[in-house]
Amino acid sequence: MAGLGRPALALDLPGHGRSSRHTAVYAPRKLVLPIAEAIRSFAPKAKAVAGTGLGALAAAALAARHPHLVPALILIGTLPGHPAPSDDAEYLWQGLARLAAGGAPVTVVRGSLSDAAVAELSERVPSARLVASEGHSPAPDGPPPTAAGLTPARLADLLLTGTTTRSSS
Length: 169
What we know:
The chain has 169 residues and is of the alpha/beta class. 30% of the residues lie in helices and 11% in strands. It is built from 4 helices and 5 strands, in the order αβαβαβαββ. A 5-stranded parallel sheet has the order 1-2-3-4-5. Helix 1 crosses helix 2 and helix 2 packs across helix 3. The radius of gyration is 16 Å and the shape is globular. The protein starts with 27 loop residues before the first helix and ends in a 14-residue tail after the last strand.
């Protein structure tokens, strides 16, 4: 986002990034309150919420609990129950479906999501937009499959998966 000259708020979830490993919380529902407070305090006019891995599940939980804070949602390489089973999966799927039904755009960057995950997305959130990253490995017999009803698109990995950060300190 910085390379695009767009303002963005990046959060280190407890136990991730520069935050203490001693405060690790890996339950998406338990992360909603601090994320909601950060958005209200630092990005009250946010145009979208994006997350990858646990951040994607926490963003889905935020959408389920506080849809007014999520004008658009971008989930990168993770969906409820995918890639790993989750006790919160049904709650998160219901939240995503309600968010989309309310008119908020839901975009999923496929990454390494399985065909089963894509099919479940198509069934549960038919208005979702599926984006295949350039680095996605094609299936043995052709390009990565997309589920019926989802809009395929291409997006460069560089915009989403950079592993370094710049700091002025």
